[in-house]
Design goal:
The complex is a heterodimer of chains A (about 110) and B (about 120). With about 110 residues, chain A is mainly β. Helices cover about 0% and strands about 45% of the residues of chain A. The chains are: A mainly beta (about 110), B mainly beta (about 120).
Chain lengths: ~110, ~120
């Protein structure tokens, strides 16, 4: 698995966009980037994934740089219920969850 | 469309007893994955199973732990002779048939407490 690096924590104001960065400078050409989140005490939840094009679904947008060395998960209008640990993963064979970014959405 | 079901949600065992954790995948899913989350730690992959086959057990402790996914019925994670260090949340995930999928759907977890 390519190693991913995320900031340990971030704050975001309710209603604003939350932009969560991830560095994956060692990612290979065929490795996707996956994002999951884990709300306290719950099972992880799949959010989105991408290879090199930007992706959007009902939950979030994923922006991947052209060199694929980093990506940003965007929650366009964060709510209090988006408070969670967000994991950026470049899996190869299995999902390896690192420490993630603890996002706190504040009123 | 029911999601991944795990039971029991909470399990208390004394040291030396056996723990059996069950996971019913989403309808139509034939791949099951087990993960463990120790207190204040991240999720760790344990095992990946398809019906009647263990595909990857590289994350399973060498002793006391076993997993199965029979042709009929739920997947079972079995821990024999539990010790305090086994206290953790155990999550199961499932994905549809086909090649290995990283788009996995997780259950609510079983919280095991060993006293």
């Amino acid at each position: 698995d390519a190693k991913t690096t995320q900031p340990p924590s971030m704050d975001c104001a309710e209603g604003r966009a939350a932009n969560l960065p991830c560095n994956h400078s060692t990612i290979s050409g065929n490795e996707y980037v996956y994002w999951y989140r884990q709300i306290h005490s719950q099972g992880p939840q799949y959010i989105i994934h991408g290879l090199k094009n930007n992706e959007t679904n009902e939950m979030a947008s994923l922006i991947i740089t052209e060199d694929r060395k980093s990506s940003t998960l965007i929650l366009p209008h964060a709510t209090l219920r988006d408070t969670a640990v967000y994991y950026c993963i470049a899996p190869l064979g299995k999902l390896i969850f690192g420490q993630g970014t603890e996002l706190s959405v504040k009123p | 469309n029911a999601g991944v079901m795990q039971n029991p949600r909470h399990l208390v065992r004394r040291r030396g007893q056996e723990a059996r954790l069950r996971c019913s995948p989403m309808k139509g899913h034939s791949h099951v994955y087990w993960y463990r989350q120790l207190p204040e730690e991240g999720l760790k992959f344990m095992v990946y199973l398809q019906k009647e086959n263990i595909i990857d057990e590289s994350g399973m402790p060498k002793e006391r732990f076993s997993a199965e996914f029979p042709k009929e019925g739920p997947s079972i994670l079995r821990i024999q002779q539990v010790v305090r260090g086994d206290s953790a949340a155990y999550f199961c995930a499932s994905s549809p048939p086909g090649h290995v999928s990283y788009e996995q759907y997780f259950g609510p977890g079983t919280r095991l407490t060993v006293t």
